[in-house]
From TrEMBL:
<dbReference type="InterPro" id="IPR012340">
    <property type="entry name" value="NA-bd_OB-fold"/>
</dbReference>
<dbReference type="InterPro" id="IPR000424">
    <property type="entry name" value="Primosome_PriB/ssb"/>
</dbReference>
<keyword id="KW-0238">DNA-binding</keyword>
<feature type="region of interest" description="Disordered">
    <location>
        <begin position="110"/>
        <end position="147"/>
    </location>
</feature>
<protein>
    <submittedName>
        <fullName>Single-stranded DNA-binding protein</fullName>
    </submittedName>
</protein>
<dbReference type="GO" id="GO:0003697">
    <property type="term" value="F:single-stranded DNA binding"/>
</dbReference>
<feature type="compositionally biased region" description="Basic and acidic residues">
    <location>
        <begin position="110"/>
        <end position="119"/>
    </location>
</feature>
């Protein structure tokens, strides 16, 4: 079986995320993202250069979850695709590019966090398809991020 791959993007959220809705009513997450750049020197050291910036968008339920969980400055890794677009403004054609993320998460190499493994739904199904109540935890874990 072939391994499925997709484009990816890593960086940091450079602006305050925005949650809007399309004409069809789909949620749309938008933020500017930044990527750090470095130049390798002859002695093997690295010099930090100015970051580069772009547009990051997500749609539907993924957009709503990302809006709840991401804030300016968060480091992330996303899977999706680059989308080039053009539009007209004042009779001029304007071209741009955005990264459309299908999946996004905090960058584990740069973010400390706790994982909440409590079930998302109160009722789950076992391997036979029978409903069962998961064991209750005395104090559910919460997700907290710090950088």
């Amino acid at each position: 079986m072939a391994i499925r791959t997709q484009e990816s993007l890593s960086g940091f959220i450079a602006s305050d995320p925005q949650l809007t809705y399309t004409e069809r009513g789909d949620a749309r997450f938008y933020a500017r993202f930044g990527q750090e750049n470095f130049q390798r020197e002859e002695d093997g050291s690295f010099t930090k250069l100015e970051p580069s910036f772009g547009n990051l968008v997500l749609y539907r339920a993924t957009a709503e979850r990302a809006f709840e969980r991401f804030t300016k400055g968060d480091q992330f890794v996303a899977e999706g695709y680059a989308h080039e677009y053009t539009y007209e403004r004042d009779r001029q054609s304007i071209a741009g590019e955005e990264f459309v993320a299908k999946k996004i998460g905090h960058d584990t190499a740069r973010t400390r966090y706790d994982v909440d493994r409590t079930p998302r739904q109160a009722m789950n199904r076992d391997a036979t398809g029978q409903a069962f109540e998961p064991p209750r935890q005395s104090a559910p874990a919460t997700t907290s991020l710090s950088m």
